[in-house]
Write a structure and sequence with these properties.
The chain is an alpha/beta fold and about 300 residues long. The protein is built from ten helices and 14 strands. The two termini are about 35 Å apart.
Length: about 300
């Protein structure tokens, strides 16, 4: 099995490279030119590193050659106000479409993209892959457009395409300002935690479980299309915060409601994960175990 992984240094990319290499797959890890982690990634068994910027992804196929699967993770502007930047998100779409076409030109057999719950927009109901996509950000809009156009292009060229749609992943190495990462840091120091009311419904999936799901989509015989990625442990966000405090035995004061919701309002995520589970995948890491793994990584 020969696999190409773009954004190989990112939160999802690096553990995916490690897992694929561990399975004995031949891995081509693509990072931006001058990336600081390229030398480390190059020490991982069965792994070759290629430096290539997103704007040059029309060259991707020529550089990696024929692969059994390509996982496309590179996407700029995934957080905050950059999600609303239409020009930036359009550029992401255009460059990733160049990657798809380039890879297929050089014999790629399967494409795995990186979708997002942002493609569905705001919903207070259970979300399945059949739920209509109504994105309310430029990020979500161009993610949907990329999925649809890449899917159709792959179908025209007899290439398989699977899209994991990530709802809320967490784990070691995640962005430091997420609710989990920032509050673990505060709770370990017994500092006050100021938050929104946290009354929305939420579903957290540990990154290692997500990696197992992606690996399955890379090689298993399963339907093309989108797959929702969640744990199935869906509850009020406040409950997760309180559980973190209990796990950490923290004396932090939890100030729910001191931070206002954003202009987007209360966003709940409730993914239906039956399609992903039909591939034989199931989550293994409980929220408690996931938090403990993050703390252990912080202590190193």
């Amino acid at each position: 099995m020969k696999i190409c992984i773009t954004a190989a240094n990112c939160f999802i990319g690096l553990p995916l490279v490690k897992k694929a290499a561990e399975l004995g797959w031949e891995v081509i890890a693509v990072v931006r030119v001058g990336n600081k982690q390229k030398d480390f990634i190059g020490t991982i068994q069965n792994t070759k590193v290629i430096e290539l910027n997103l704007e040059d992804y029309d060259q991707l196929g020529a550089l990696v050659g024929p692969v059994d699967c390509a996982v496309l993770l590179t996407w700029n502007g995934t957080r905050g106000k950059t999600r609303l930047d239409d020009e930036l998100q359009k550029t992401n779409y255009e460059n990733n479409m160049k990657a798809v076409k380039s890879l297929i030109d050089y014999g790629c057999k399967r494409i795995v993209t990186a979708g997002s719950q942002a493609e569905y927009g705001i919903s207070n109901e259970m979300i399945s892959e059949k739920t209509e996509c109504k994105p309310n950000t430029a990020y979500g809009k161009y993610k949907v457009l990329f999925y649809k156009d890449a899917y159709n292009y792959c179908k025209e060229n007899n290439v398989s395409l699977k899209e994991p749609r990530f709802f809320s992943l967490y784990g070691p190495g995640d962005y430091e300002n997420t609710l989990i990462m920032s509050n673990i840091k505060k709770m370990r120091a017994n500092e006050t935690c100021d938050m929104t009311p946290c009354t929305q419904m939420w579903d957290y999936l540990f990154v290692d479980d997500a990696i197992e799901g992606i690996i399955g989509l890379c090689h298993k015989e399963c339907d093309d299309g989108a797959y929702n990625f969640g744990s199935g442990d869906c509850r009020q966000l406040k409950d997760f915060v309180q559980e973190m405090k209990s796990i950490l035995k923290s004396d932090s004061k939890l100030n729910f409601g001191t931070v206002p919701y954003t202009a987007a309002g209360i966003v709940s995520i409730q993914p239906d994960i039956h399609k992903l589970k039909s591939t034989g995948w199931k989550p293994k890491v409980s929220f408690k175990d996931g938090v403990e793994k993050i703390v252990k990584a912080m202590e190193k």
